[in-house]
Amino acid sequence: MKTIKIGNNVVGNNRCYIIAEIGINHNGNIKLALDLISKAKECGADAVKFQKRTPEICVPEHQRNIMRETPWGTMTYFDYKKKIEFEEKEYLLIDKHCKEIGVDWFASPWDVPSVKFLEQFNPVCYKVASASITDKDILMAIKSTGKPVIISSGMSTIDEIENAVKILDGSELLIAHSTSAYPCKTEELNLNMIKTLTKKYPDSPIGYSGHEKGIQTSVGAYVLGAKHIERHFTMDRTMWGTDHSASLEPKGFKTMVRDIRILEIALGDGVKKVYESEIPMRKKLRG
Length: 287
Known about the structure:
Blueprint: E1 4-6, E2 9-11, E3 17-23, H1 30-42, E4 47-52, H2 55-58, H3 61-64, E5 67-70, E6 73-76, H4 77-83, H5 88-101, E7 104-109, H6 112-119, E8 126-128, H7 136-143, E9 149-152, H8 158-167, E10 173-178, H9 193-200, E11 206-210, H10 216-223, E12 228-232, H11 250-266, H12 279-286
Helix pairs in contact: 1-5, 10-11
């Protein structure tokens, strides 16, 4: 299988590239975002991921004036989306902090200007959100950066995935199996798609972006061949916000990383051998 370098990590070999999806779980608070980065690194994440939007483009007109109850009072949906969006000042702090502690960071841009915005920070790669996999303009803008690209395949047909792959032809491409439900039901995870995608796209390291509760299924995704795994990350799943309930808290995330790292060693190379540790027992029981 082809390997792809992201930051100082090589993705596609035995070692799984593990991403903590902070997304918008910072709730517009840069201190919380920096704390989440530090905690993700402490838990063993290789990378943290954010989401970048231009609300004037991404918020549909018919939703803009819908009133919403928030921790900052009642406001329109448009004002809420503006309030939680980080701009240059915040991303400068994110970039500096990630470099200081040695963790990769990147983001999912939800519109073309956001790609241009993120480029000033020279992120290690880009992530195409499941919602954007059919957006040719975003795909072409990301492709033009020349960076590695991870595409998430939630709520997508095989044909839609195939079309995105064709548009991104020439990019160093990684694909993440995903189901876009928050939280996702176990019976809708369809983890065997990891094997399907691995067979269909042998030159693209296949991974998993999960939104389920618990960690067992993400660990199982690694066993099925996922070369990169992303889970939403929060300090507290009961916090206000849309993604917290489908996220892992630090204890769960750290346990998931630990279990995956153990399995990286335990799976071995698939070649049968007699280990030195077995020889005394072999002599004792076989004479």
